[in-house]
């Protein structure tokens, strides 16, 4: 029997290899593979222009960008954050010897709930590390009000919000720093990669010291930095990806629109809305929430039934970060402190979405979800 065609939740989007070859040939000829080479410098410049932000610092991945952002702002003590994210968000705190303090999420967009923050603030709290989940921005206005009241720094994990705008302004311009990921699974990728968005030249300079061992020049180390620079091949791919990004997003939008149209009438399948103030939405994931009573089966049963048909959705985010053994012992990890997050993590599943997902495969996914319902 022929092998069953597998459909994964996401798939890297890449340009035609022929387009990349001239970049690679130039890199090979120059023998400049890293250390702030030509393509690194050009990609930073073009990316800042494209995103309409002041300063971009490129990294080899988004996790090291998070780790470095915390170092940049000299964060200490406790940091308020969300349990509903990829584990790298909290891991970056531990790597900086910081204590995560988890705060519950709001039920509409699944972002950290600002109204739960103040009760979690102590004399040791120095910062808020919030995540824009599924491309929908946090309540940035309320978070900034709280930060200003208590003298806290604000860092946004913006891995899901490449080029998204809130009321006409780049989401990346909020907070003290924002972090991007260019991982292979993201709508914009450089295979691996990431960036920190900063707002002034002094901060940009400190970030760039920290990502290159702390060197200011060949004999001067300004800070205990690490090596997290983006290499020339990643940067060259990034430049090429910028040329095709709008085309990629148009395809993702069409897939998202079809899901919303076809699944809207399926009882027990709830779709997370797109934030009404957002433009340039990038459709990073297509999450749905499963209501067991209305749909007739649990999220986990739907997940397994789809997998048995060769369709690999993702329970994203599941488990909560607070449920991992590394974090379970924290007082803020107790289930009673995180009721909304505890509920959402049991119901959410992200359906396949990527530009090369064809209509036949998407129709198969939709029809199976309908068939599996009561």
- The CATH homologous superfamily of the largest domain is termed Type I PLP-dependent aspartate aminotransferase-like (Major domain)
CATH-derived topology of the largest domain: Aspartate Aminotransferase, domain 2
Query: So what's the overall shape?
Result: globular
Counting structural domains, the number is 2
Quickly give the structural class: alpha/beta
The chain-level mean pLDDT equals 97
Q: Could you tell me the strand content as a percent range? A: 15-25%
The radius of gyration computed from the alpha-carbon positions, rounded to a whole number of angstroms, is 21 Å
- The oligomeric state of the chains shown is single chain
Task: Report how far the terminal alpha carbons are from each other.
Answer: 31 Å
- Note the run of SSEs as H and E: EHHEHEHEEHEEEEEHEEHEEEHHEHEH
Strand order within the widest beta sheet: 2-10-9-6-5-3-4
Poorly predicted sequence stretches spanning 5 or more consecutive residues: none
CATH architecture of the largest domain: 3-Layer(aba) Sandwich
Number of H- or I-type helical stretches: 11
Number of strands: 17
Summed up, what is this model?
This protein folds into two domains: 17-240, Aspartate Aminotransferase, domain 2 (3-Layer(aba) Sandwich), CATH 3.40.640; 245-372, Aspartate Aminotransferase, domain 1 (Alpha-Beta Complex).
Detailed description of the structure:
- The chain has 374 residues and is α/β, with parallel strands linked by helices.
- It folds into 2 domains: 17-240, Type I PLP-dependent aspartate aminotransferase-like (Major domain) (Aspartate Aminotransferase, domain 2); 245-372, Aspartate Aminotransferase, domain 1 (Alpha-Beta Complex).
- The protein contains 11 helices and 17 strands.
- It has helices at residues 17-30, 38-51, 62-72, 88-95, 140-150, 201-210, 232-263, 292-295, 299-308, 339-347, 359-372, and strands at residues 7-8, 55-59, 78-81, 99-102, 125-131, 153-157, 165-166, 169-170, 177-181, 194-198, 215-217, 220-221, 269-271, 278-279, 286-290, 311-312, 348-351.
- The strands form 5 sheets. It has a 7-stranded mixed sheet with strand order 2-10-9-6-5-3-4, sandwiched between helices. A 3-stranded antiparallel sheet has the order 8-7-14, with no helix packed on it. It has a 3-stranded antiparallel sheet with strand order 13-15-17.
- A hairpin with a 2-residue loop joins strand 11 and strand 12.
- Helix 1 packs antiparallel against helix 7 (232-263), helix 3 (62-72) crosses helix 6 (201-210) and helix 7 crosses helix 11.
- The protein is globular.
- The mean pLDDT is 97.
């Amino acid at each position: 029997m022929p092998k069953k065609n597998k459909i994964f939740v996401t798939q890297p989007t890449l340009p035609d290899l022929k387009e990349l070859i001239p970049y690679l040939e130039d890199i090979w000829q120059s023998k400049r593979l890293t250390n702030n080479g030509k393509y690194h410098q050009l990609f930073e410049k073009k990316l800042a222009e494209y995103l309409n932000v002041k300063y971009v610092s490129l990294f080899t991945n988004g996790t090291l960008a998070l780790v470095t952002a915390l170092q940049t702002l000299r964060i200490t003590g406790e940091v308020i954050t969300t349990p509903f994210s990829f584990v790298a968000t909290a891991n970056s705190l531990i790597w900086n010897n910081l204590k995560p303090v988890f705060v519950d999420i709001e039920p509409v967009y699944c972002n950290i709930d600002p109204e739960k923050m103040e009760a979690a603030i102590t004399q040791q709290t120095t910062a808020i590390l919030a995540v824009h989940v599924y491309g929908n921005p946090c309540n940035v206005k309320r978070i900034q009000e709280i930060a200003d009241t208590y003298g806290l720094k604000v860092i946004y994990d913006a891995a899901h919000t490449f080029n998204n705008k809130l009321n006409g302004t780049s989401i990346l311009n909020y907070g003290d720093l924002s972090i991007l990921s260019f991982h292979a699974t993201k709508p914009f990728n450089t295979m691996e990669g990431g960036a920190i968005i900063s707002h002034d030249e002094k901060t940009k300079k400190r970030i760039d010291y920290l990502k290159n061992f702390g060197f200011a020049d060949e004999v001067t180390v300004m800070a205990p930095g690490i090596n997290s620079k983006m290499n020339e091949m990643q940067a060259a791919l990034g430049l090429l990806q910028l040329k095709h990004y709008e085309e990629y997003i148009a395809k993702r939008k069409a897939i998202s629109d079809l899901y919303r149209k076809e699944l809207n009438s399926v009882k027990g399948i709830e779709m997370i809305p797109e934030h009404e103030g957002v433009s340039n939405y990038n459709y990073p994931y297509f999450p749905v929430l499963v209501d067991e009573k209305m749909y007739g089966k649990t999220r986990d049963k739907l997940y397994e039934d789809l997998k048995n048909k060769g369709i690999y959705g993702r329970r994203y985010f599941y488990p909560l970060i607070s449920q991992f053994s590394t974090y379970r012992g924290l007082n803020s990890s107790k289930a009673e402190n995180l009721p909304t997050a505890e509920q959402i993590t049991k119901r959410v599943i992200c359906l396949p979405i990527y530009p090369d997902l064809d209509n036949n495969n998407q129709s198969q996914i939709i029809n199976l979800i309908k068939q599996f319902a009561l």
